[in-house]
Amino acid sequence: MDVVLGVDIGGTGIKFGLVTKRGKILYTDKVKTKAYPKPEKLPEDLKKRIGAVLKEKDLTLRGIGIGTPNGNYFTGTIDNAPNLPWKNLVPLKEYFQNTFNLPVALTNDAKAAALGEMQYGAGKGCKHYIFITLGTGLGSGIIVNGKLVYGYDSLAGELGHIIVHRNGRECGCGRKGCLEQYASATGIVKTYYELLRTKSIDDFRMSLGNMIDAEAIYKKAKAGDEIAIDSFKRTGEILGFALANSVCYTRPEKIFLFGGLAQAGDLLFEPTIQSFNENLLRIYEGKIKILPSGLKESEAAILGAASLIWKEMPRNKKK
Amino acid sequence: MDVVLGVDIGGTGIKFGLVTKRGKILYTDKVKTKAYPKPEKLPEDLKKRIGAVLKEKDLTLRGIGIGTPNGNYFTGTIDNAPNLPWKNLVPLKEYFQNTFNLPVALTNDAKAAALGEMQYGAGKGCKHYIFITLGTGLGSGIIVNGKLVYGYDSLAGELGHIIVHRNGRECGCGRKGCLEQYASATGIVKTYYELLRTKSIDDFRMSLGNMIDAEAIYKKAKAGDEIAIDSFKRTGEILGFALANSVCYTRPEKIFLFGGLAQAGDLLFEPTIQSFNENLLRIYEGKIKILPSGLKESEAAILGAASLIWKEMPRNKKK
């Protein structure tokens, strides 16, 4: 059976898996990113690790798809990724090609997941959508006419850096008020602390000794904590506003929300959809759905990376 | 010689012209919009008016392209255009098809001009750009991979209604703070009066008896009037900010500014480019040009409308 190696590169770990054309993951494993101070060692090592599996399960490797922070589809390089140990430009596509001698495609992790949504998730058959990942930051992929928008140099779809508050929160990009400073796991924590400080300076001070994360805010909200619930409301309010503006660009049919924060369900979706509707241009009213992603959190990145290759593979290929 | 009839529908007048594939306008004329309380009379009348010209110049009409406010490319209708005398849905494409029995294409006026820019203007050979018309309102067309983005229902590219100031100026769309309330001929007049009122309430009151327009503000600015110059600065500041955000969606190579305000040249371009650069995400720095349109103001709409048909015409068609 034909499979593709999907590789999901993150700041902490590198997940990889063997994926069939139908999106079944036949094998997965993980290595630590810091185990590869030299990225050129990665392909060789992965080749060894999957070699036995391919043989044992009688699988034929057809290509390698890679999703990575700051991945550039056109050049096949990782460009100055702040959260990876590899600086400057890393020609990772070339490294993999040299090792495997097979088709390799590399792109930004959010773009890979956006494609995975089309091939294996809730985006099947949908030609116009926006895919948003709400993780540590906010990533996105925009689909127009069934194709991912790469733009002039593969750097389209940076919705995390839409400025939503001029002179708002400082962003890692060096500017202020970017969307991902509000609508992301990091953003909701900041919002939580802002609200807590406003309500009670003592609670705020006490909480600082025991830093809270987005998951803890979710649990608090579920338990009825007002500040936690309000944190989700404010996050949704800003996200809904930004998405309403976003619709004016490419007029999607659907918007998919993926990632940790999106798993909070109604806590996030309700205020997001309410704000979206309040801020939406009338000609779009009632026409655009905001939906949860159809991809499993644990599988999305590998599936997305693999779909990069399956999409490029000639359709008349046997098997 | 083959020609296409380009029709540019406006609130006051309807301009039309016979356009060759190379973009030469062989004949133009104009009728008053209010002369057609029933839009179904328009095609018949235009047919009569161009009939003699076609014969005399030995031209073959190959199709009709129509640019109109609220034109929907997919349905061929004009949808609830507030500035036209025709209410609800007007199936204008069908009316023209019935009369001429030739290919007809209809779209939003700004989208038509964006295509005209590609075929006949400064967008030749550019696969990724954003086209902005700064007229009474702000219209736009987004080009991705050499194709106009229509989105799910032809209503993509409504950048005039990006909200740039929450709770800002009231917009005709029923919301507040839309970009076109600031960056348009109407917007700069509002900005001028705001600045004038802040500076001198007496000047402000006196000026109200003699309403100023965008062209007068341009002349005042050229003559050194500080409030007029400042009005352009503030207009450019907001436009540049909005364009910097816009780049995050489709990552264009270029941005073209068209229309009355854009003809103010440096008065508008300098503050726009400055603000654009200040607000731009670093990964795009120095890579995106903001340029004046290459289309003549008087010809753009007819050329754009005509280009709709020339673009759809099979390439192997003789002559």
Q: Which band does the percent of strand residues of chain A land in?
A: 15-25%
Spatial arrangement of strands, main beta sheet of chain A: 3-2-1-4-8
Oligomeric state as shown? homodimer
Which structural category do the helix and sheet elements of chain A fall into? Answer: alpha/beta
Task: Provide the succession of SSEs of chain A.
Answer: EEEHEEEEHEHEEEHHHHEHEH
Largest contact between chains? A-B, 41 and 41 residues
**Which whole number gives the mean pLDDT of chain A?**
94
Q: What does the largest sheet of chain A look like?
A: 5 strands, mixed
Any idea what the radius of gyration of chain A is? 20 Å
Give the low-confidence spans of chain A.
none
Please give the count of helices of chain A.
Answer: 9
Terminal Cα span of chain A? 7 Å
How many β-strands of chain A, per DSSP? 13
| Shape descriptor of chain A | globular
Residue share in helices of chain A?
25-40%
What features would you describe in this structure?
2 copies of one chain form a homodimer. By secondary structure, chain A is an alpha/beta fold. In chain A, 38% of the residues lie in helices and 21% in strands. Chain A is built from 9 helices and 13 strands. Chain A has helices at residues 42-56, 92-100, 109-120, 185-199, 201-208, 214-222, 226-250, 266-279, 300-312, and strands at residues 2-9, 13-19, 25-32, 60-68, 71-72, 77-79, 89-90, 104-108, 129-134, 138-144, 147-148, 254-258, 289-292. In chain A, the strands form 3 sheets. Chain A has a 5-stranded mixed sheet with strand order 3-2-1-4-8, sandwiched between helices. In chain A, strand 10 and strand 11 form a beta hairpin. In chain A, helix 3 (109-120) packs across helix 9, helix 4 (185-199) packs across helix 7 (226-250) and helix 7 (226-250) packs across helix 8 (266-279). Chain A is globular. The first copy, chain A, starts with a strand and ends in a 7-residue tail after the last helix. The model of chain A has no long low-confidence stretch (mean pLDDT 94).
